[in-house]
Amino acid sequence: MPPVPALNCPTVPLSNGLQIPIFGLGTSHNGGYSHDAIIYALTECGVRHIDTAKRYGCEEKLGKAIRESGLPRSDLWLTNKLWPGDYGYKAAKKACLDSCSQMGVDYFDLYLMHWPESLRRGCSNREMRAESWTALEELYKEGVCRAIGVSNFLVHHLEQLKEDCSVVPHVNQVEYHPFQQPSHLIEYCRREGIVFEGYSPLAKGQVLSNPDVLQIAEKYRRTPAQICIRWSIQNGVVTIPKSTKNERIQENCQVFEFQLEEGDMNTLGMLHDGRHVSWDPTNVE
After folding, report:
1. Cβ atoms within 10 Å of 90's Cβ, excluding its own
2. 4-40: b or e for each residue (b if 16 or more CB lie within 10 Å)?
3. Which pTM does this prediction carry?
4. Whether 93 contacts 132, CB under 8 Å
5. Contacts of 157 (CB under 8 A, 6+ apart)
6. Cα–chain-centroid distance for residue 19?
7. What backbone phi and psi angles, to 5 degrees, belong to 196?
8. Tell me: the pLDDT tens digits for 56-74?
9. Contact status, residue 31 vs residue 244, Cβ threshold 8 Å
C-alpha cells in the first residue's frame, strides 16, 4: 500500500525562507518511541514532520522506520537535537554528523541545542553555548542542517547568543500548553524572527481533565487533546504532540477541520498558572 497523501497541514516560514509544518510527531525516551507508530503516522496519517533527539536513544530505529515507510527523504521534515554532553565546537560537529549517520540521512531540516546549560566543566554556560552555536552555524553553512535553533532557551540566553554569534536561531522549542504560556518569551521570539515551537501541548495529560477544556471539548464534539492541540496551532505555535498509540496519533492529527471561537481561545489562554511538566530552565545562567 502506498502512503496516504501528506496531511493538509499549514506551514510556518522560518527567517531563512524554509517552511516548517506547524504540526509534527514528537518522540522521547522512557517508552516514548514506537516503531509501528512512526510508520503508521507517516503512511496512514500523512504526518511529514518528526521530532527527535540524540538523548532519546532512538535515532537508528527512527531512521529504519522512515526507510520502511517508503517516503522520500525530501518529503519529510526531520528535527534532531544536540545533547549538552556534546557541547563544544569539535564535539558538537561530530555529534551532528554521528546523528546523521545513525539515522541514515545526509542532513537534518532543523538541528537544535537541546538545553541552555553545559555539562562540561571549566567554561561558563555562555561560553559553551557560543562555542557550540559556532559549530551549528558551520553545519548550517555546509548544508548538513537546513536550519538551526535552540530548545528551552529563555530571553537572556537568546540575547547572549545574539551578542556572541552571527546567525540568529531559526527556532526556539519550549514547553507550551494552557498551563505554561511564556508570553514574554513568545513576544521576544516573534520580534526577533525566531519561530516559537511548543512541546508537551497536553501538559503530559494534566490538562485533559481541566473543567474548561472538557466543556469546550463537549461544545465542539472533539476530544480534550484535540482542543489543546488546536489551541496551540491556532496561536501560531509549531506543535509536536508525542504518542506511541496509533489511535491517539490519528486523533491528534484531526485538528485542521475545525476552528476555536475567540471566546474559547481566550478561556484557554487564561489557564496559565506557570507550572512546568518538563525541565525548567529559569535558573540556568
Report:
1. 10
2. eebbebeebebeeebebbbbbbbbbeeebbbeebbbb
3. 0.97
4. no
5. 116, 129, 150, 281, 284
6. 14
7. -95, 125
8. 889 999 999 999 999 999 9
9. yes
Burial of 247 from C-beta contacts in 10 A (0-12 / 13-18 / 19+): exposed
Distance between alpha carbon 284 and the CA centroid of its chain, in Å?
A: 20
Beta strands in the chain (DSSP E): 11-13, 19-21, 25-26, 49-51, 77-82, 110-113, 148-151, 171-175, 195-199, 238-239
Rounded CA-CA distance 80/52 in Å is: 5
The sign of the dihedral angle between the CA atoms of 229, 230, 231, 232 is: positive
**How far is it, in rounded angstroms, from Cα 14 to Cα 100?**
22
104, three cell numbers: 541514515
- Give the active site residues: 56
Question: In degrees, to the nearest 5, what angle opens at C-alpha 228 toward C-alphas 225 and 233?
Answer: 120
Around Cβ 229, how many Cβ atoms within 10 Å?
25
31, pLDDT greater than 80: no
Residue whose C-alpha is closest to residue 26's, from 173, 241, 268: 241
Cell triple for 3: 502512503
Give per-residue pLDDT as tens, 220-253. 999 999 999 999 999 999 999 999 999 999 999 9
- Provide the pLDDT confidence category of residue 127 given band limits of 50, 70 and 90: very high
SS3 state at 192: helix
